[in-house]
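Attaching the record inline, Q. Sequence:
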Amino acid sequence: MNYLKNYLIKNKKMDFPIYLPDATRAVIRSLDAKDLEQAKVEGVVVNTYHLMSQPGATAIESLGGLKKIMNWHGWLISDSGGFQLLSLIYSNSSFGKITDDGAVFYRGSQGKRKKYYFTPEKSIQVQFSLGADIIICLDDCPRVKANQAETELSVKRTVEWAKRCKEEFLKQVEIWQMAEINRPLLLAVVQGGEDKKLRAKCAAELIKIGFDAYAFGGWPIGQDGKINTDILNFTVQLLPADRPKFALGVGNPQAIIDGFKMGYNIFDCVLPTRDARHERLYVFSQDLTEADILNQPDICHHFYIARERYTRDPKPISAFCDCYTCLNYSRAYLRHLFKIEDSLAWRLATIHNLRTYTKLIEKLRESIVKN
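Structure, as predicted:
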């Protein structure tokens, strides 16, 4: 495998592979920018639909963009809002409706009734206001059990919306007076469900239009509840070797390793942060300096810190972790914090899980150098 080591974005190199936690509403819950930096997090993914709803694109732009608001100096990737078509509208029609023109949301991100018109053009406009380094085209993400006709319509809309997104993107580059060297990247999403012919058709049409980067779109979990490695591997092989490839929503540790071996460069997932708030901690089974990470299955596992056995456990969460939590606190103390429902529990657990992920990324980068 000829791994892509990095890519130039706004005259700065993004190193690959990279894991990006989801800061959906411009925050990793319970952490600030300093916590993220100390955990070696290099970038975050924010959500266009939710931020358009609250606090609003014009408010964010007037304050100098999200990075300034968040005091964040790393990468900022803005998800288009396409996944909200799946998670909100396709799941519950009371949230809105989808047409060939775009989507109409009847509720805001916090459930209050308000109408939002969300088109490919609007998605791009909002993402420029956010100040993202990578902007993602609005795609039609079908429901998990979509039938053939629905999947075909999803591909048709995704391609047509990608054309409109690129046209609007070029307009915004002019409006913001951006030179080629300092503009964001525009990424297109490949849909098609588990239908390989539709995946190939979608990828081919998007490549004809021409984008800076591409992503696997849709639901990466197969009907057996496991990562669908077959369709992920098939999709990545359709994409240009010299462009970044984003495995959207792929993010458990083994899936990152497998996706990296396939040729994906960028990963995001809510697992390490959400699981941390639910007492689930990730740890490596051995010191990564001694591990054959590409060929050793189950290098990372998890445990639940709130179990009784950790009441008097003086050890850190992991003997192989250098995060702030492991260097300063015991399993017993973290269990205690969860039991008394103190917010510090979320912070300490989230810091640890994110550092586990960034250590995984560091090891994968070392494997590129060795190969």
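Residues 6-270 form a domain with the TIM Barrel fold (CATH 3.20.20.105). The chain has a mean pLDDT of 94.

More tomorrow.
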